[in-house]
Structure to design on (856 residues):
């Protein structure tokens, strides 16, 4: 069955995914003579860099999500459909979705990434928590709080230890920022909420397989981040891989065993490709191989941008880092290239402009670097806040995030400690 | 198994339910020589009067919920447990909960009310939506938005009509306020979000079995409310009962049939009692019969307050109205009476101080009455906003609700249009 989309006589660009890359393309092409069909399995854009704040009760989901239909109001030549794309047929130029099939003239795959558990089988990875989307972040929030509630009920000290400990796997920005936020919660909030629990016994573990945290940043910043998380009382295990987990005990590559009922996996992501592309376009980490124009290898009119795209360039033999700026810049390029192709001109190659990197570690502390400049501490933390607020989509989100942060900062509080697990259509 | 609660040597008061009544009692007794154990199946207090704003995307759940553990931080002699109470044994003075048994010296049942579908069997009521708690309100929000998404996909006009229509059963404050909010959404938001749908065809129905809306208020205010909702284009059916529903078609007592895939039932509530109380304490509408001191009939040390309590007084032959002020005032009285009983003094009887009633109908319009004074329009609407903000628990909630309302008011927007259905522990 064909998907019901108005036929305008224009060429049709279908964008799969309303993340940073997808919305950039739509914005760039909004006044052009081309129909833009945006598809996403959710009806909102997610600002992933702040998911950990939703998970730790500092922000509401509505503050970091933006309704895609509201975004599409600004795109007069745009149409939105909530849909999951299951297959691409490059011969007929059609995609199959859960709500019907659709013809495209140009196609952009901007589906981002998902958690990569690597070698772990489903019965092990299924016991770990993820934090790649809003339902997962809300779920993590509820799960951690439920564990504390349960810890109050037991006389068994081993069981209690298991319930109050939290382990984070992966010392990248997500792992480090989450560890900082949890360290702050343990210090300022949890002892007041749970006066009966002894939070000196609560262990927050951070496992990193490599020799330093924030491996993508300068070693000096890695050292600073290490100091900051340690100051929050986080146990950092460098050069340590998680080799197994049974729901209670974590096996480590150094032979040790650590006890925790909550394991949050932030140690890897992989692309989220769609079936039907040429075999030759398969790259490592589930990504889609694209040329320097972001065009999917061995296709004519299909592009991929952001986390899901793997573009091999001299300085990036394994593709670009899977971060928002790459997605935005590639989105920008693809918009321009589609216009060039429509005019019969040559496409332009991608040149990554690396603005730098930053990560925050709880209250008042962050590290950042840009163009050789390195900085840590309070100023870096303010810069981090500023950059994140400015990058948020929509005035309301900028406002509520700023207000929420001001409130949390001055009250040392994170009031969003609600255990909410919405039900199906009909409640219990 | 006994619930693990520190033994302090004090008398133990167990409060079941952290609603308006329950938290009032804890506040009143916070500096007294008595242990207070607060039990609730959720870890948050819900400000029910604003649930309809969560359902219609105007407010975040975190703005109208307040963590009970944060509340209990102010109660030095208080303990909180997230628990569902299943049975009361009045002989041994013990309650059974899903997390263990607990002895009480004094017990207060403040469990509120739940939806009453009256004669409808589960296969009919199961097709209707409720709005009595936060998961239900979030669920309703997602369900309505999903229906619009689905409406875009069909060429079948009957099916489309079914998907975009909304029916509300019950012309009390909840039904009227919800109808107003939906009328506003249809006017200001939905046409922009769904330019492909013809919202002139969207019907919002409000069914009321009695001869007027807001039956508890003065007829003049009923007339005003009727005018206000009609101005928002709501189809009001007075003297009309819903007699059946099959998921698509609503059967009405006047023989007519109305088509809507969404039916929200606000036409009745019933008490939420707990098993184990004397048979003689059973009152109409699932409520618990209490004497003038709020003591459960034929018990010594068990009280009930708020929606679940039925106190027959001269002016209230069927018990008091099931509204927040009654719960708060009864909570206040029970706190005082427990202190009096502990001192061997006589308890004091309940005297209801009726502050009046109010209801809002969308933007700029409300009705209110108090002590013979009646008012409608913009001033009543401002008063409604003020009273609701002031009644919210916690400074942060007062702040975020005020900010949210200001934003919504000046932008004519409700940005919280996210379809979020959090998953179980592990995401798909």
């Amino acid at each position: 069955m064909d998907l019901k989309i108005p036929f305008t006589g224009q060429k049709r660009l279908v964008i799969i995914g309303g993340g940073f890359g997808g919305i950039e393309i739509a914005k760039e092409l909004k006044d052009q003579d081309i129909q833009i069909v945006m598809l996403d399995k959710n009806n909102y854009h997610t600002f992933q860099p702040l998911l950990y704040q939703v998970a730790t009760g500092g922000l509401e989901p509505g503050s970091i999500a933006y309704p895609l239909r509201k975004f599409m109001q600004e795109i007069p030549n745009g149409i939105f459909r909530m849909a999951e794309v299951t297959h691409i047929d490059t011969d007929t130029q059609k995609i199959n979705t859960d709500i019907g099939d659709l013809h495209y003239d140009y196609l952009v795959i901007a589906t981002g990434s998902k958690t990569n558990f690597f070698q772990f089988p489903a019965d092990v990875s299924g016991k770990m928590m993820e934090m790649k989307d809003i339902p997962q972040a809300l779920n993590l929030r509820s799960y951690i709080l439920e564990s504390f509630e349960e810890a109050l009920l037991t006389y068994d000290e081993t069981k209690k230890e298991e319930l109050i400990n939290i382990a984070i796997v992966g010392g990248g920005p997500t792992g480090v920022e989450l560890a900082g936020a949890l360290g702050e919660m343990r210090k300022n909030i949890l002892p007041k909420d749970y006066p009966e629990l002894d939070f000196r016994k609560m262990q927050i573990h951070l496992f990193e397989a490599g020799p330093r945290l924030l491996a993508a940043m300068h070693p000096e910043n890695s050292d600073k981040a290490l100091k900051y998380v340690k100051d929050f009382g986080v146990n950092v295990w460098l050069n340590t891989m998680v080799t197994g987990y049974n729901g209670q005990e974590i096996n480590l590559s150094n032979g040790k065993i650590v006890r925790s009922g909550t394991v949050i996996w932030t140690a890897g992501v992989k692309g989220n490709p769609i079936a039907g592309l040429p075999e030759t376009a398969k790259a490592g980490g589930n990504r889609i191989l694209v040329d320097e124009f972001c065009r999917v290898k061995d296709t004519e009119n299909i592009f991929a941008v952001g986390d899901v795209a793997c573009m091999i360039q001299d300085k990036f033999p394994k593709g670009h880092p899977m971060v928002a700026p790459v997605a935005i810049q590639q989105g920008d390029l693809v918009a321009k290239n589609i216009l060039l192709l429509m005019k019969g001109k040559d496409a332009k190659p991608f040149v990554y402009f690396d603005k730098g990197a930053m990560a925050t570690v709880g209250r008042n502390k962050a590290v950042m670097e840009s163009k050789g400049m390195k900085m840590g501490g309070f100023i870096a933390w303010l810069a981090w806040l500023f950059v994140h607020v400015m990058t948020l989509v929509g005035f309301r989100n900028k406002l509520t995030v700023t207000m929420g942060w001001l409130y949390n900062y001055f009250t040392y509080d994170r009031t969003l400690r609600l255990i909410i697990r919405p039900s199906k259509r009909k409640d219990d």
Remarks:
- Chain B touches chain A through 65 residues (CB under 8 Å).
- Confidence is low (pLDDT under 50) at residues 423-428 of chain B.
- The first helix of chain B runs from residue 20 to 28.
